[in-house]
Amino acid sequence: MVSVSGIVSGIDTKAIIKAMVNAQSQPIRRMERAKAGLSIKVSKIGDIKSKLTSLSTLAESFKDVEGVLKYNATSSAESVFTVTSDGTASPGSYSIDVTQLATAEKDRSVAFSGGAFDEVKAGTVSITLDDGSSADITVADGETLTDVKNKINAADLDVDASIINDGTNAYLQIVSRNTGHEVGGAASDAITITETYTGGTGTELGLSEVSAATNATFTIDTGISVEKKSNTVSDVLEGVTFDLLTTGSSNLDVEVDKTGTKDTIQSFVDSFNEVLGLIVPELRVSAETEPLTSLGGDFLIRKIQSDINSVISQRIDGMTSAYRSLSEIGIETGADGLLTVDSTKLDAALSGDIVAVGNLFAADTIGVAQQVIDLAEGYIDSTDGLLKSRTDSLNDRIDDIDDNIFKQQGRIEALQTRLQKQFTAMETAMSKINAQGGALTSFMGSQNSG
Predict the structure, then answer these.
(1) With pLDDT > 90 as the criterion, what percentage of the chain qualifies?
(2) What are the sequence ranges of the domains in the chain?
(3) What is d(CA 54, CA 74) in angstroms, rounded to the nearest whole number?
């Protein structure tokens, strides 16, 4: 439809329509501001949920004492063995004398003068390990030394087969992937090979032991002898793992790593403060606070802060170790609402009873770590967590605003169309009146002239 704007009437109808539409658009602008504020709130809650999730993940590692406490384990001669420790270790010094390393059994075939593709006599090669696993390798007529090697490597067995070529002859060699043999058993039982042949051509493997399996043997201090299948030993001293490298003597020292433990505890406090750093500023409402975007009036956010403060300040019922609250080891809430660590107090706790410090966090079902996990889960659960419910509620309000904006825009568009039609009709009518007036004036003029 053609729109006429004040050509006849001299009235700026476009300006009038624009003013009327603008007046009707005020509610839309208010709704858009409210929507933007709700979107910011959704984003803030998402950030809080993310930090709570990170805190819960970190707390999982604190459920075990070794995740909290750190020890330094050192070897005076790292050429003999290296050592590591975890939070279950106990301080102490030990003299270790390594007399033998663990080695794997090796078996080798007879010489095959035709090389890696020389024919092996058809039959069955049965391989049994001392852990009870076994495999039967079937050799078909015409198969070569390489074929047999590939079949052994394809079997579900902890051995590796290879071909050694000395320039004249080829040999099939089988090596156990595991060192040693069952303690108390025969070394020859590490790998047992039985060969049965049915073919008429080719060469029998004739596998025989060329290197016997040996167990690692060492003594701890005086009179304690240890024999192990592996050179990696983790079940002799609690919380200590050492790797034997060669025979010889070395001293093993395990000491409390206060710095490492303090750093670990500080990381826990820092993760708490990442959550509180998002919550505390929201709860400081002032005249400058923007109500559309602030979470200051949200009861759920205040509840999160309250629950965190409860975990920090409470004395844990049922805790039997020396420390029953975080404040007793120097962790408290500061004036700014964030957690602080009293280094002097924490040092004293680590020097006094470091195991009790670990238990404060790791005690089953009641430790701080489990309490944090339980607290966080109630908020961050993806199905029925409180933060998900709050986010869903805010998003529902955003959807409602979008619906209202859409409806309001429809009404404004209808109003604009109606006004344009009305003003156009007015201009058209005035144009016709003016035309008729002109014709009448002309007619009257001609009559007067006559």
Answers:
(1) 63
(2) 29-66+259-390, 71-101+216-256, 106-211
(3) 33
